[in-house]
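re: that chain from earlier
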Amino acid sequence: MDQRTGMAECHSTATPVDTQAKLSATDGAHVANPSEYRSLASALQYLTLTQPDLAYAVQQVCLFMHDPREPHLALIKHILRYVKGRPHCFSP
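^ sequence. v structure.
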């Protein structure tokens, strides 16, 4: 996913979602590429099959697939940073 997101050099995070943040369907600017947002959300959704700790965060992302906005994309990036910090869970 690093090639698709440009996040190869990002720092990891300890949690998949910020529980204090509240996402809104109308806050923030529309994302530049909704298809890319949907593709990333779908890839994360696939990971929930083997990583149930991602389920809540990914479900929040998927709620806004019809009209994604910048705060929703920020959550996707947060989840990706969490995944990056757990390579032992995703290696063969």
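The chain has five helices and no strands.
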